[in-house]
Amino acid sequence: MKVLTLNTHSWVEENPEEKLAQLAEKIIEENYDVIALQEVNQRRDSEAGIVGEWYCPVTDRVIHEDNFALRLTEALQVLGVDYYWTWGFSHIGYGIYDEGLAILSKQPILPNNYRVSQFTEEADYRRRILLTGLTEIDGQLVLVGSGHYSWWSQDGFAVEWATTEEILADSLYPLLLMGDFNNPEGNEGYQLITQGALQLTDIFQTANQKIGSHTVAKAIDGWEGNQEALRIDYIFISPELTAQTYQVMFDGKSGPVVSDHFGVAAVIHA
Fold first, then answer.
1. I need a labelling partner for 27 at 20 to 30 A (CA). Which of 2, 19, 36, 128 fits?
2. pLDDT tens digit string along 141-192?
3. Partners of 35 in beta bridges
4. 245: left (phi over 0), alpha (psi -120 to 50) or beta
5. With the CA atoms of 89, 91, 94 and 95 taken in that order, what torsion angle do they form, in degrees rounded to the nearest 10?
6. CA 154 → CA 125, 189, 227, 265, distances in Å?
7. For residues 2 and 36, what is the distance between their CA atoms, to the nearest angstrom?
8. DSSP character at residue 235
9. pTM of this prediction?
10. Can you tell me the distance from the alpha carbon of 91 to that of 98, in angstroms, rounded to the nearest whole number?
């Protein structure tokens, strides 16, 4: 199974239409089975969209015509490939966007949407969710998660991760958890994940082949003043799965830069 995670930064990026087209073209070229996306935005004042038969609903929130996941799947369809997709609302971003998470899959998705933070107000950027989708990859049912977590703190990431573990603890299926975790390798948050009850493995540590490492190269939103390369976007897998490859994508080498984050792709085996 070939998978990708990317914090898209969507409409907050400069030249977003061009970057969306570049993203779609690279997805077609790489032929991913499953894709997890973060910071998937739609303007709050835009018109309702037409979602079509490939949308797998998980929220009663109206999908707008400029929803980044909707627009991406439409671009992929123009290029000849259909992806099932789902989108969950997290919080209001920059005062003008409904910000959320998305999962795309070549097979139908049975989605769920969970609030993992203790913060409930929609306008509070600390309101965080976990979007999951049960889907089939290479004949194997896999529970895929897309997450965008807070920075390390006892009332931020620590709470969010404890809730995530509770949600996923009883999964009957292999876990493939991807996203922007905002916790660099080795810090307290990273240790909570890799030493936790879900027995998740960071594929960077175990993949047979690695191309690249870090996913943030400069100061970005939430990491103002950053001067070092950071690895904060991850693919974690449960013990039933193994990683053959780890590759940083959309870094100007393996694909154009389309976001303030680079993506991570992998080949995973059951």
1. 128
2. 999 999 999 999 889 999 999 999 999 999 999 999 999 999 999 899 999 9
3. 4, 104
4. beta
5. 100
6. 16, 10, 25, 30
7. 12
8. E
9. 0.96
10. 6
The CA-atom distances, in angstroms, between 180 and each of 47, 76, 148, 194, 260 are 29, 23, 5, 15, 12
Token pair of 266 as six digits = 């992998």
Strands 129-137 and 201-202: unpaired
**pLDDT single digits (tens) 14-32:** 999 999 999 999 999 999 9
Which residue reads 């996923």 in tokens?
168
Residue 52: alpha-carbon gap to chain centroid: 22
110-115 and 129-137 beta bridge pairing: antiparallel
* Residue length of the chain: 270
Tokens 């660099």, residue located: 184
Note the pLDDT tens digit of each residue in 32-75.
Answer: 999 999 999 999 999 999 999 999 999 889 999 999 999 999 99
What whole-number distance in Å separates Cα of residue 6 and Cα of residue 259?
A: 8
Side-chain half-sphere exposure of 84, counting CA atoms within 13 A: 17
